[in-house]
Write a structure and sequence with these properties.
2 helices; single chain; mainly beta
């Protein structure tokens, strides 16, 4: 027979140990695909929160969504205009939805204004259309496809990417590391207040179109820069009798002889074109 103090300590441990099988702050969902052998496409757009997508060797979409309520937890009780009563802010649950049709998967949530952070696993051959606005970054790793990524107030970070990317953000950096690129698909990377930092395979063939208003352009590649005179674009408004003159101050050039166009633009930041070593 075990001593009483050991049994008592074991009972205390059982009482004190929390169970995390399911809480109102977390939702998980697995979505099977119509044909896992074929490429798919994932679409998710949220207002508040982060999105992380990772390619893996599986055949399903695995969604893990966590709600962040730090502000509410810090202010769990608020006075109601001095009447002596307190308002209790409840931590209501949330729902995520996923619709699948012929390998096209769309993910949403019933609480668009709540900060919800998504971590999603997808098969490696999957195209992505991701967007968020506030309080979150977008991360993508180990995925092959044609990707459209949009963020307003956060970073865009992509690693071990194959295919093509169109990415734009406003107030942060864009960092993309390619292992392979689609030679026939144009790409674009734009931000206003941040750097554009893109790493390409050493054998990439592309025409680059570059512009930074308050920054510099750096490259590991030998870029054959177009040194022709700057173009002046003139247009007329006949009804008002006015003329508009615009200077085309883009830097254009070719890498490894040229190919499909890649555009990079930032207003406040540098542009980095790196060679994958």
């Amino acid at each position: 027979m075990k001593p009483l103090h050991i049994i008592f300590a074991f009972l205390l441990l059982l009482i004190a140990t929390p169970f995390f099988a399911h809480t109102q702050d977390r939702e998980q969902l697995t979505v099977p695909l119509t044909d896992p052998s074929k490429e798919g496409k994932l679409k998710i757009g949220i207002v508040t929160g982060s999105i992380k997508v990772v390619g893996y060797e599986g055949k399903e979409i695995i969604i893990d969504a966590v709600a962040s309520d730090k502000k509410e937890q810090k202010n769990s009780y608020t006075n109601d205009r001095g009447n002596g009563m307190k308002k209790i802010i409840t931590n209501a649950g949330f729902e995520i939805t996923a619709k699948e049709n012929n390998n096209q998967v769309s993910i949403g949530t019933d609480q668009v204004n709540r900060e919800i952070n998504f971590t999603i696993k997808v098969p490696k051959r999957f195209s992505l259309k991701l967007s968020t606005v506030n309080n979150g970054d977008i991360w993508v790793e180990n995925v092959e496809g044609n990707h459209e990524i949009s963020n307003v107030n956060g970073h865009i970070n992509m690693k071990n990417i194959s295919g093509s990317v169109v990415a734009n953000t406003i107030n942060q950096d864009i960092n993309v590391n390619f292992t392979e690129v689609s030679s026939s698909t144009p790409m674009a990377f734009t931000t206003i207040n941040g750097a554009v930092d893109i790493t390409f395979p050493a054998n990439i063939k592309t025409n680059v179109k570059l512009k930074t208003d308050r920054g510099e352009v750096f490259s590991d590649f030998d870029v054959d820069v177009d040194k022709s005179p700057t173009k002046i674009i003139q247009s007329a408004d006949k009804e008002k009798g006015m003329y508009k003159i615009k200077k085309d101050d883009w830097t254009q050039g070719k890498i490894n002889g040229g190919g499909s166009e890649i555009m990079m633009k930032t207003m406040n930041g540098n542009i980095y074109i790196r060679k994958n070593k």
